[in-house]
Design brief:
single chain, 6 helices, alpha+beta, 11 strands, 3-stranded antiparallel β-sheet, 2 domains, 4-stranded mixed β-sheet
Length: about 240
């Protein structure tokens, strides 16, 4: 069987497993709250992908995170809250910036052209007015392209960041409390939800277990206490 067929088969089975759970949708992201049993089944399916994976870019495409985004592999969540967070784009790594610059230029170029067409239509520009307007737009884009080419030719001469600080985008956001796999510690984590793949939170409602533990502690206390009246039980402190 071809690698792509194996991957597609695993992907289909994972999505079938998720169908039994209700979805939470937030800002274009999808979140599934699943139990430990289902997570164990996903981990078993993941084993089928391991022989397909390599260090190459193509080999990395066969990872489970290209099917679903497991939020908490480090431990089982017992409490969570889903909300909306706002953040802006900021890139400061120069190597990443240089790779991204042509795409940023094209994105901006498309925005400028769309805005220009809107202005032409709304203002009913024709004749010389239309020609002058288009010339202005084309000159602006050419000037920007020249600046882009200068930066790409001599990046060492520039300090560069890509920042959308004035453009805040809304993202799905989750805060969850989880037990570490050792069971010894509890921690809290916050993450943005992905929009490219479904997000999965492995969750267990431990309220019943907590209540059982509390009940046992109370029973043990009562067994070794004095009922002084009504529902009041006392024990003498060890230091007395």
């Amino acid at each position: 069987m071809k690698k792509s067929d194996v991957f597609q088969n695993v992907s289909t089975q994972v999505h079938e497993l998720l169908k039994q759970f209700a979805t939470i949708e937030q800002c274009g992201s999808i979140l599934y709250i699943i139990d430990q049993e289902t997570y164990a089944q996903i981990k078993e399916l993941e084993k089928e992908l391991l022989p397909l994976q390599t260090e190459t870019r193509r080999g990395q495409a066969y990872q489970m995170d290209k099917i679903v985004n497991i939020l908490n592999p480090e431990g089982v969540a017992f409490k969570y809250h889903v909300g909306i967070a706002k953040r802006s784009k900021l890139i400061t790594d120069k190597n990443k910036i240089i790779k991204q610059l042509p795409a940023e230029y094209e994105i901006n170029k498309n925005k400028v052209l769309l805005a220009a067409e809107k202005t032409i239509k709304e203002s009913n520009l024709t004749g010389d007015n239309l020609a002058d307007f288009r010339n202005t737009i084309n000159k602006t884009l050419q000037d920007e392209k020249t600046k882009l080419e200068n930066v790409l030719k001599n990046p060492e001469h520039y300090k560069i960041i890509i920042s959308g600080f004035n453009i805040k985008k809304e993202w799905g956001h989750i805060t969850y409390h989880y037990k570490e796999l050792s069971g010894e510690n509890k921690s809290v984590h916050q993450k943005h939800l992905k929009t490219t793949y479904p997000n999965v939170l492995v969750y267990e409602d431990i309220s019943a277990n907590d209540q059982y533990r509390i009940d046992m502690e109370v029973a043990k206390f009562i067994e070794n206490s004095e009922n002084i009246f009504g529902n009041v039980f006392i024990q003498k402190e060890d230091n007395e």
